[in-house]
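Journal club prep, notes for RB
We'll compare a predicted complex against what the paper describes. Inputs for the magnesium ion case:
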Amino acid sequence: MTQLLPTPLVSLTALNRTFSGGKRLLGKPRTMNAVSDVTLQIERGSVTGVVGESGCGKSTLARLALRLIEPTSGSVVFDGVDIRSLSPKTMRQMRRRMQMVFQDPYSAIDPRYRLQDALLEPFRLQGIKLTKLEAKAKVEELLPMVGLRPELARSFPHQLSGGQKQRACIARALALQPEFLVLDEPTASLDVSIQAQIIGLLERLKAELGLTYLFISHDLSLVRYFSDKIVVMYLGRVVELLPEPSALPRHPYTKALLDSTFEPDPKLRRTVTPAVGEIPSAFDLPQGCAYASRCPFAQDRCRIERPELEPRPEGSLRNVVGNIPLHAHPVACHFPLPLTSS
Ligand SMILES: Nc1ncnc2c1ncn2[C@@H]1O[C@H](COP(=O)(O)OP(=O)(O)OP(=O)(O)O)[C@@H](O)[C@H]1O
Ligand code: SF4
Ligand SMILES: [Mg+2]
């Protein structure tokens, strides 16, 4: 019997994005692949986590998924519509259904705006006119939704704490009642206790509003706690797709991320390195596996042949009747870790 799977809310297919910059080579600017050949399905009502070190392409992938930047090639389908084909006007309307929460709540809100004006900004950007009464009602609805007192409506950003500002950013992202939220490291600049509160808020909102999240973080433990499946990126490529948050890592890089201790102080977080060895330049990637210079299991084949992202049926959950893999566990590694490793 064929199993009917629900259509995903977002489908990214063979997405690539290059940037030029850096030193010139023979008079030509050099290019780098910030996102390479990423294919990913984001199911409705799910949390898809994206994890990887700084510069691996997480934010570029997020921006591509919302068409905030154009891909060099590949497609982004949102609810059955290829959004690359939309006119600017239709895209603007579509944008109501997809919103982003950024990492730094301090710079995400214009310091000259009162909180109420920041919350109403999405309506202005969409050209939606609200009467004074409607605007007031909207602010009064949004503030408690994110756990902020209505009296804060006339506050300026500098009068709010980091956690309150991030709550405000989440409220602003929810103003137009989107279905899809991209959360780009929404807790990275917050202390751990505040981080837990924001994660709790995001969980509650997802359950209450039936939202779908793309959740980006450096912290694999946090992503594991919060996500239904996890995409691990290294230098622009997906190196592993964990079909379940508790799935054992099979790529040595994912294992190194899992073993690295997360730094609770947000100011020190970016200095955490999960593995030894040199990271190759994104402008000059080796022909083989990009992780070979840091991988304790690297062999000659790894330096010659790039491993493709391949499903590993032996690591998948299986349908009891047909023994068909329900959730494939793709890994881009010639010598994946055995399932018994801890
Ligand atoms: N507009 C741009 N122009 C040139 N290069 C860019 C641009 N945006 C991103 N890059 C480069 O693309 C690569 C991926 O960047 P991206 O911001 O997506 O990484 P990230 O995983 O989000 O990193 P972080 O964890 O630090 O936020 C980096 O090498 C970055 O320098
Ligand atoms: S392909 Fe080789 S170098 Fe790359 S992660 Fe796997 S074992 Fe390590
Ligand atoms: Mg980023």
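Talking point for the session: The mean pLDDT is 89.
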